[in-house]
């Protein structure tokens, strides 16, 4: 791979699940990453495995809105440019009915899922414009369908979809795509089954239990590799769209 093909990418939520799958795919294809999550250990493993030439680690909570700017500064100081941003972090909390939750709990959820995304996007845009870069947002089917107790999460993911739509109009030099990753075998799914099921309807809880029991969950690599490839070469014709990871429009990005 030539230097011109190598991309410099900021990846949030990189320590586990889909984010870790995205990181491994990009790094195995020799791209440069600034990886962000709250926990240092898993990020350090990426640094150890792929080396300091490819990985810069930034541990912290993205609800500290200054962290996004720090990530951009790190990418620019280290490699001189930024080609893509993958916004993959998020929290399911609060998992409560609207009547049982507080506005403050919703605010905390939106700080993580929405406002931190806005902050890191804003910090990235000047550099992404120069490179005709890409923003890939990990969304959710919950953005367009309702589960009892998931109001804050679903609403926050719907905001990401609208962010992609708005950015496609406001930022013609940047391609922004929102991706529905499907139901993936991740730590969040374990928490749904073991921690949050009591706040959900019996029907919804049984659905997620059944997917695990019957082998119906996706591997993180399935949507993760699609998201990684979109960050590298997602076309302008996809900008503003909310697409499932296995949508036919993304056929060329899916593993055979």
From TrEMBL:
Q: TM spans, by residue?
A: none
Q: Which domain of life is it from?
A: Eukaryota
* One Pfam family, short name: adh_short
- SMART domains attached to this UniProt entry: PKS_KR
User: What InterPro entries does the entry give?
Assistant: KR_dom, NAD(P)-bd_dom_sf, SDR_fam
UniProt key word Metal-binding: no
Tell me where in this chain the Ketoreductase domain is found.
7-187
Q: Which UniProt keywords apply?
A: NADP, Oxidoreductase
A molecular function (GO) held by this record is:
oxidoreductase activity, acting on NAD(P)H, oxygen as acceptor
Q: What family classification does the UniProt entry report for this protein?
A: Belongs to the short-chain dehydrogenases/reductases (SDR) family.
Would you tell me the protein name for this molecule?
Ketoreductase domain-containing protein
Q: Which organism is it from?
A: Massariosphaeria phaeospora
């Amino acid at each position: 791979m030539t230097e011109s093909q190598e991309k410099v990418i900021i990846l949030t939520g990189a320590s586990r699940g889909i984010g870790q799958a995205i990181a491994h795919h990009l790094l195995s294809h020799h791209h440069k990453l600034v990886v962000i999550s709250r926990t240092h250990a898993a990020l350090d493993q990426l640094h150890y495995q792929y080396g300091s030439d490819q990985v810069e680690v930034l541990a912290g909570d993205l609800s500290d809105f200054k962290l996004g700017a720090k990530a951009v500064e790190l990418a620019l100081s280290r490699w001189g440019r930024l080609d893509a941003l993958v916004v993959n972090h998020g929290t399911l909390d609060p998992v409560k009915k609207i009547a049982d939750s507080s506005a403050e709990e919703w605010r905390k959820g939106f700080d993580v899922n929405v406002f931190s995304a806005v902050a890191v996007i804003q910090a990235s845009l000047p550099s992404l414009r120069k490179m005709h870069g890409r923003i890939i947002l990990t969304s959710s089917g919950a953005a367009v369908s309702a589960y009892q107790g998931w109001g804050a999460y679903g609403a926050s993911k719907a905001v990401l979809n609208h962010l992609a739509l708005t950015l496609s109009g406001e930022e013609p030099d940047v391609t922004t795509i929102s991706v529905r990753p499907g139901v993936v075998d991740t730590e969040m799914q374990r928490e749904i089954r073991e921690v949050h099921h009591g706040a959900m309807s019996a029907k919804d809880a049984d659905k997620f239990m059944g997917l695990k029991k019957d082998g119906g969950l996706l591997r993180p690599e399935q949507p993760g590799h699609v998201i990684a490839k979109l960050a590298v070469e997602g076309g302008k014709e996809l900008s503003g769209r909310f697409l499932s990871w296995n949508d036919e429009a993304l056929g060329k990005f899916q593993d055979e």
